[in-house]
Structure to design on (218 residues):
């Protein structure tokens, strides 16, 4: 399974102005092909049903649902917090949230990471300090896997700055959840990302499988 690229939508039903399924459908219509299901406070049966509903929506456009946390909810893609678990579960796609070089150094078999927060974010006030594009660029150069920029990204100009720093995509929450028209919001960000990508050389990354593995005790 390829790592997420483009505009990746993170869910938050409390921030959404419309039912979550409607927001995701609108985002998919605007070009989003990756959605990360958060909603960790829901009981597993409810979260499982929501995952099935969103997967069906994304399947219509060839999209993929990634589940936040180690439980893939009958899927094959998860996004883990920096705190764990280590090692990651064995599924088709594993992402992890990272914020600094120390967390990047702990990666083992993950396929991609998010780096955050790039800018101050309304979703998590006071969370930081923000990396800004310069800090994002520095950490991307240290990352062994592709990077999604996350945190406070709301405008096409910010998307362009993240791509210019070396990000393969942007993960966004509030700007989509709070949008009156998620389709238009995703389209605007996606257009900026595509335009910026045409002028930026891809950042090389070390293959996860090629990284040295610890030796077992003899």
């Amino acid at each position: 399974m390829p790592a997420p690229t483009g505009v990746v939508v993170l869910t938050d039903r409390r921030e959404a102005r419309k039912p979550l399924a409607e927001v995701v459908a609108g985002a998919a219509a605007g070009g989003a092909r990756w959605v990360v299901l958060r909603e960790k406070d829901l009981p597993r049966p409810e979260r499982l049903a929501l995952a099935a509903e969103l997967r069906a929506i994304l399947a219509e456009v060839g999209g993929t649902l990634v589940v936040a946390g180690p439980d893939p909810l009958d899927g094959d893609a998860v996004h883990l917090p920096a705190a764990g678990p280590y090692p990651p579960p064995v599924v088709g796609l594993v992402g992890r949230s990272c914020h600094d070089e120390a967390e990047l150094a702990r990666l083992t078999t993950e396929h991609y990471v998010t780096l955050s927060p790039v800018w101050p974010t309304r979703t998590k006030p006071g969370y930081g300090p923000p990396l800004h594009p310069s800090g994002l660029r520095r950490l991307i150069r240290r990352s062994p896997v592709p990077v999604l920029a996350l945190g406070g990204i709301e405008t096409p100009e910010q998307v362009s700055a993240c791509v210019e720093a070396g990000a393969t995509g942007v993960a966004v929450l509030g700007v989509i959840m709070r949008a009156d028209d998620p389709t238009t919001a995703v389209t605007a960000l996606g257009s900026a990302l595509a335009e910026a990508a045409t002028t930026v050389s891809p950042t090389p990354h070390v293959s996860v499988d090629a990284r040295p593995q610890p030796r077992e005790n003899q």
